Structure formats: structure tokens, C-alpha cells
Amino acid sequence: MNRMPSQTRILTLVVILSNVLGNFALSLGLKAQTLAAASTEVWPYMTPYVRAFFNPMVLLGVALLILWMLSRMALMSWADLSFVLPITSIGYVISAMMGKFFLGEHVSPQRWAGTFLIMAGMALVSLTPARTVKQPV
Amino acid sequence: MTQWLLVGLIVAATTGGDILQSLEMKRHGPIDDFAPKGVWAKIVELGKRPLLLYAIFLMAVSFFSFMLLLTIADLSFAVPATAASYVLETVLAKLILREQITPLRWAGALLVAGGVLLLAV
């Protein structure tokens, strides 16, 4: 991690957090929507899929994922795709943790092993330079 | 069955979108102005790049299919299952984007892919 310039580190953090929190909000919103679908009579002519877009948690999730897309685009302007992908994969680990602590999901030994592998892989990739090609491809 | 069709669509769209996006952002060069005004000007400027628009279209396809998948499957299934795009994208980054995948980076990418698979168990 120490070799990464601070700009890369900060933007990587934004990319990771916006992705994890965005997915989490979407998941919460869509689950609530599925449960409520049968009883909602506000817009009976809309399918549950369309109605889901008006759920506040879904909207928050969409906003965070827009931030994720833009920050990731900026990161890609100076870092390799094969660098960005493993580095931001720590998001999977954080998703699993949030599943455990906020949704009460069980984290099996296999999942902990997976978490460890992802972190090890991320550590290895962070030792490589972020950019290996010259500007125009 | 439906869920695996969606996973296939998500993986294809994600991979295509990422490759195009990385290609265009490399061509554009480093962005380092993060003041609100600069960011908006940059978004407008980037909006004029056709390949980037295709990339965003593919990301949108991937995103809406992912939302659809979340309505019929758990997040803890959806996230790892769509991670197949990992290895595919690293290979294409080497072949199309000409990135140098050093042994260290290969090792890291494979560890991550293995870890994501274990999460799916």
C-alpha cells in the first residue's frame, strides 16, 4: 500500500465505499419492496419492478452507484484495469462483513478463507505499479 | 435458470463496458482536477467520446440486469456469481489494452478470483 500515491489511495477508497454502500442500499430497498409489493396500492398500475425505483433506499443506492461510476472512471484515467479490478475487490469482503453484521447472515469458514485470499491478492497487486502502458493505446 | 442467464448477461456487459471504459480513459489521460466546476466540465467533455458512451450503455445493461437479479436472488449470491468477469477482464486487459500483467499481478488477480469463488460457497 505504501507505494501507492495518496491520490490513488483516496480515490480507490471512494470507489470501494460508494460501491459497497450503493449495493447494500439497493439490496435493502429491493428486499423491502418485494415484501411490500403485495400490499402496496399507491400505484397499482405499475409493476413492482418500476415501483421499486421510487423507494428511498433504492434512490440512495442509485446515487451512490453514480458516484462509484464517476470515481472509477477518474481512477481508470491513470491506473490499469488489471490494477483497479483486484484493488477494488476488497468491496466483496466488506459486503460479506455487512451481510454478517447488518443482515444477520452466517459467515462460514469457507467465506472467511475467501476473505483472506482476496486480501492477500489485493496486497500483492498493490505492490505493482498502477500504470504499465503509455498514454495512447 | 433465469438467474444464471442474468449472470451471463451481467458478466458479458460488465467485461465489455470495463474494457471500453479503460481504453477511453487511457486515451484521455490522467484526470486530477476534482473541484466541482472542473468535474462538471470534465463530465460534459467525456460525454462526447462515443466509445465511452457505449461503455456507459453496457454498464447500464449490467446495472439493470443486476437489479433484476437482486429481486430474485440474494446479494450474497449475486455479487460472487458475477465475479467470473474477473479473470476474463484480466486476460482481455493484456490482449486488448496491452497492460503488462507481471507474475506478481497475475498471482494477486488469481488469489482474488479464488477468494471470490470461495465466498460463493
Description:
The complex is a heterodimer of chains A (137) and B (121). In chain A, α1 packs antiparallel against α3 (56-76) and α1 crosses α5 (90-102). Chain A has helices at residues 6-36, 48-51, 56-76, 81-88, 90-102, 109-126. Chain A contains 6 helices and no strands. With 137 residues, chain A is mainly α. Helix content of chain A is 69%, strand content 0%. With 121 residues, chain B is mainly alpha-helical. In chain B, 80% of the residues lie in helices and 0% in strands. Chain B is built from 6 helices and no strands. Chain B has helices at residues 2-28, 36-46, 50-72, 75-81, 85-95, 103-120. In chain B, α4 runs antiparallel to α6. The longest helix of chain B has 27 residues, at 2-28. The two termini of chain B are 18 Å apart. The relative contact order of chain B is 0.16. The model of chain B has no long low-confidence stretch (mean pLDDT 87). Chains A and B meet through α1, α3, α4, α5 and α6 of A and α1, α2, α3, α4 and α5 of B.
